[in-house]
Amino acid sequence: MRDPREPAELLTAAADGDRSAWDELEHRFGPRMWAVARACGLGPADAADAVQGAWLRLLQHLHDLRDPARVGGWLATTVRREALLMLRKERLGASSFEIADDPDPAAAVLEADGRRTLWQSVSALHEPCRSLLQLVAIDLGNQQVAARLGLPTGSVGPTKARCLEKLRTLLSLQETAQ
Amino acid sequence: MINDEYFLAALRLSSGNDPIPGQVSAAARDAYRLRVPRAVTAAYAESATIRSVRDDDSSHLVRFVAAGLTFDLEVTEGDGLIDVAGHISPYPGEGALVDVRSPHMTLTRRIGDTGHFVATGLPPGWLSIVCHRPGHAPIQTAWVRIRPCP
Prior knowledge:
heterodimer; A: 178 residues; mainly alpha; Rna Polymerase Sigma Factor, Chain: A; Arc Repressor Mutant, subunit A; 2 domains; globular; B: 150 residues; Immunoglobulin-like; eleven-stranded mixed sheet; 43% strand; elongated; DNA-binding (chain A); transcription (chain A); transcription regulation (chain A); RNA_pol_sigma_r2 (chain A); DNA binding (chain A)
């Protein structure tokens, strides 16, 4: 059975020595951290390092996160920063990391509720955007997407960018309406 | 502004494609044993220059500062392993120990009366130092990632 505790409670419990709370944090947020690292373009070995680095940093900030309820966003942002540092090949520059107390607003789409909304919004898009983004979600390359949708390969990149823009607009409208 | 990379991450996550590998989750859970209760964390000192100290780029200096202590680390890479030569100033006192830690191993060293310590043969990857002083809270450095040159 899933642990019903809120993220902030889990964080406090983990800070006080509750190992099960730490395990639950990993269970809830680990998958999206991996997705962020991979989305940044890291291979499996570097993505594993980026995720591990974010957990190690959380371990050192269990008591002083500014917004414990947003620990999921903090972790996603931290992974992203680690990933970008790795991509810049600043090997020891990784140590210049500062405490990421302010979650990147973009991380919200990786929260569970945000993800649901996102997927519903994709379904609400017209073709070819709906199918294209669903294919992109399963990591098909541009050539395969082109073949599936009957598009010229060269048009997949620009079409994807336009579709993401439409999705962004749709989400903004939904936020405004709320 | 939500950037495309997060959109794509969220889409991939929703699709269940490319799930997190089991060993990555296991390593994250296992990291909990590296928690140091009541420790003060020494931040990377922006004022210090991380620089290569050898022509072949195999050695680097990095500095951390907290609670009045400065950690200067020279990290050398060779044969797929890393060596750490450290200096803590001011001298942290009689009975002080350092743990030189990676997620996979911890080497404990006594600090010489000049404040120096050495640890060799650590696996590449994440590295942190913890200084234990009798009667004080432990001080740990932020984690740094050390990878051999490609």
